[in-house]
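Reminder to self: tokens first, then the designed residues, so the page reads top to bottom the way the pipeline ran.
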């Protein structure tokens, strides 16, 4: 065996420089040889609960014994042990050895046998084989070997976890003691496949079994994620925030995004593109939109004290509801055979991440390039270190209706029917109301498909697309019933939303919504969807240019008049204007 390394002495020496360390004293002692007796020898050391070994050895207790091995001295580490000199027993005078006679060497055979038994017992129990291909077997229990750990810090972690009462409690100790709660699971050989974990043996007994009936107690193991422990250990800066630093709304938001703590921007973006390829493609009142590969990342600052574009930042609980709403609408894209309501109209949410920190220089560069080309209406994103964000990673749905060029009346009709049918499906599935469906929240793209499948209350229909596909985005103001709770934004807290210029179609639609709901925004008012459909017809008539005849314009105006009577998108989709756009099967 190689020279033994006292890991604790090294750690204690390194920590003594930080301050006063409780005095630790080591007592070296050897157990006395048991006296001979006609009765069976009991070396349980008179400790209650001692168990019987299957090896020919004494009965002993695992918690109260010191480490005894052949040819080695016992080591018991305790604080403030009284080591004052004790009164020595009277010395016995030994007879003189006659000259010329050879003294016979003492026979220690019995002592050797005793320590051999002790070694066999304790090596089986406390010293798993370093050979990964084998395990020590004792009775019916198998004690798996400890994973090989090469670094000194890893050895220190093992030593700390296996000897919780030993050693000083200083800086390094406190850091590791305050780590997240470790999962405790029954010992499994598969658990040793990873070399980044350490395990602590925890003796545990089933109360229904007598100690003498179980040669070795059941063993549980507590997994210690070394990688996680080391991430929490910082020698130059503050510790990474733990759950104790987050309030409950923020914890709920993290949970909805599948996180335990915030990410940084480049970590989130790197899953979708090379960071250098990030380009800003749009902006809104509450955030910025960047293209990352084939995806679009919408970044919304939250929980900060600094105003963003003149507006108070949204809180974690508001974004939590929007996150759940986005995941819920994703379910409408699942075209299952037994689905009652399904459509591809709402943008696909690929991922949602909570991030923290200032804007990365790459994002700053992309923002400034956009500003130089288009003239940004938003503030420059100079955020502090502790700023938090929610990043929505969405499918690229194309250009918004404001900038998209419609070619003919067929494409305009397809736009109207896809939006109407999509709202109808969401109404039927989740009592959904968008409540902010202006032309910046409708994206269009061209493809080679001629139809799209929809399922409305169990009935499947195919909608003519004329090569155009619509995606509805931005659910900040939306209302939905997930089946477990109703999610909505109380717009009474935003009175300025209803004070837009008179005659503006978008501002007038907000005021009409307020009249319909009577400021009770939690309630279900499908009529609000119809108000946005009327707005959309107005946009096509007054803001968009495309090839159309006077007959086409009359049809649009007639559709607008009929929509004034509808109370939901489910009613509107049955309008004669859409009759030849809906098919029971693909032709």
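Designed residues (587 positions):
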């Amino acid at each position: 065996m190689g020279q033994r390394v006292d890991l604790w002495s090294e750690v204690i020496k390194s920590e003594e420089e930080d301050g006063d360390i409780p005095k630790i004293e080591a007592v070296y002692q050897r157990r006395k040889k048991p006296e001979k007796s006609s009765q069976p020898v009991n070396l349980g050391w008179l400790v209650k609960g001692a168990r019987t070994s299957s090896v020919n050895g004494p009965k002993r207790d695992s918690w109260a014994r010191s480490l005894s091995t052949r040819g080695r001295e016992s080591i018991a580490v305790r604080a403030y042990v009284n080591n004052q000199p004790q009164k020595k027993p009277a010395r016995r005078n030994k007879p003189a050895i006659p000259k010329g006679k050879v003294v016979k060497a003492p026979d220690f055979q019995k002592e050797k046998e005793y320590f051999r038994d002790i070694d066999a017992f304790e090596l089986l129990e406390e010293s798993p084989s370093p050979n990964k291909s084998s395990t020590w077997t004792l009775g019916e229990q198998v004690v798996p070997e400890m994973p090989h750990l090469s670094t000194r810090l890893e050895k220190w972690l093992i030593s700390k976890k296996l000897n919780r009462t030993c050693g000083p409690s200083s800086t390094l100790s406190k850091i590791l003691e305050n780590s997240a709660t470790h999962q405790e699971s029954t010992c499994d050989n598969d658990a040793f496949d990873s070399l980044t974990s350490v395990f602590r043996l925890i003796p545990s007994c089933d109360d229904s079994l007598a100690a003498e009936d179980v040669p070795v107690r059941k063993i549980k193991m507590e997994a210690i994620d070394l990688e996680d422990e080391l991430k929490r250990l910082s020698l130059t800066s503050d510790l990474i925030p733990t759950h104790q630093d987050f309030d409950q709304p923020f914890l709920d938001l993290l949970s909805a995004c599948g996180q335990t703590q915030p990410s940084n921007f480049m970590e989130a973006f790197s899953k979708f593109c090379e960071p250098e390829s990030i380009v800003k493609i749009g902006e809104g009142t509450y955030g910025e939109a960047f293209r990352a590969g084939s995806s679009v990342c919408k970044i919304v600052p939250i929980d900060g004290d600094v105003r963003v574009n003149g507006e108070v930042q949204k809180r974690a609980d508001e974004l939590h509801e929007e996150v759940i709403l986005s995941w819920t609408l994703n379910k409408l894209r699942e075209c299952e055979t037994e689905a009652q309501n399904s459509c591809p109209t709402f943008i696909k949410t690929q991922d949602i991440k909570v991030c923290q920190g200032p804007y990365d220089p790459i994002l700053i560069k992309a923002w400034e390039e956009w500003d130089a080309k288009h003239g940004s209406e938003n503030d420059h994103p100079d955020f502090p270190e502790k700023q938090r964000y929610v990043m929505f990673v969405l499918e690229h749905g194309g250009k918004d209706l404001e900038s998209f060029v419609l070619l003919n009346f067929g494409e305009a009709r397809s736009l109207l029917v896809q939006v109407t049918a999509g709202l109808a499906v969401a109404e039927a599935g989740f009592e959904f109301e968008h409540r902010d469906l202006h032309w910046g929240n409708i994206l269009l793209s061209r493809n080679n498909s001629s139809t799209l499948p929809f399922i409305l209350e169990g009935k499947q229909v195919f909608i003519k697309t004329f090569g155009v596909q619509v995606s509805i985005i931005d659910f900040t103001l939306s209302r939905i019933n997930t089946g477990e709770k109703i999610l909505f934004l109380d717009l009474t807290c935003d009175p300025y939303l209803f004070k837009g210029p008179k005659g503006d179609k978008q501002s007038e639609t907000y005021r009409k919504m307020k009249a319909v709901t009577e400021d009770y925004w939690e309630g279900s008012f499908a009529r609000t969807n119809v108000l946005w459909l009327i707005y959309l017809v107005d946009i096509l008539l007054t803001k968009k240019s495309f090839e159309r005849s006077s007959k086409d314009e009359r049809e649009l105006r007639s559709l607008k008049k009929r929509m004034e009577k509808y109370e939901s998108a489910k009613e509107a989709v049955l309008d004669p204007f859409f009759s030849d756009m809906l098919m029971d099967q693909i032709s």
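The mean pLDDT is 75.
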